[in-house]
């Protein structure tokens, strides 16, 4: 069976997280993704660290299944190569600095190719007072209000993963799929703009509506929840367990079937969620006094048996070896320039075909082949330093 995007080609002038995530999603679904990189080091994410056998962890996560061509876009010849590749492609995606694509002659590629889908990913979008501002993930989280509701009552915090980048990248790949679907029906391409800021503000969701219509923003609650109780980490004999009771039936199950405290079920302070939130300190104390009688595995098993939402607080090493991932066979080996590594299958699972888990390319690994495909003199451009070719990937 064919993968959903087999036969489609994407050319991406991309770096960092958001755009590479978008195109990796497309590569996993079968698209051919040609990644255009700088000759002097390539994608910045290659050098964020050397955690994965000498390759950056971000880069390994975001760039499997792509072909890398290293060309100097500051030269007319380098830009001409990109235009030639785009002329044979279905999608062009870029996250250069605002205005840079236009200055390079890569800003209006649909003029002679109306069926092309182009995606312009930026921090704040075209126009507006912040168009030219730097737009790293932490800065976007701050401007979008995410940091203001994340953390503890005493201290705000950014999220531990690049949420703004991920939000924007997911909207980019979703938009490409929608545009290609429409093109299949109408023959017309699309010009798409995605703003990291607007993607992150959209993810603020209920917090925006609470502010607009109740006049307050949700408080920073740490592990707790401003509208639900009990919803927090509770002590056990050897650690803690996260418990999140979403409704009154769940409360009754918790106190009767798990905590052996049926007298709390109809306690007027706790009988409804509204009352439990109003009396959160007393409610949490009543639960904590009882959860500490069991070990973490014992309490986790009791909660699961009673159908009460709960989870153990995992460290990352425990997630890597998580029994759920093992049972569902979610890890695959992919090649990098230094070693084979494990990579997680994408969360979208097709019943009839598996995602294409391609190798992570070395910088310029496919330059010569792509220059030949573009119909230019590969030897000349490489000799002049306008393009760079890496050795073959030894660990494919």
From TrEMBL:
Signal peptide: none annotated. It holds the Pfam family CoA_transf_3. Gene3D superfamilies: Crotonobetainyl-coa:carnitine coa-transferase, domain 1, formyl-coa transferase, domain 3. It comes from the Bacteria. This is CaiB/BaiF CoA transferase family protein. Keywords: Transferase. The keyword Transferase applies. GO terms for molecular function: transferase activity. The keyword Transferase applies. It comes from Nonomuraea spiralis.
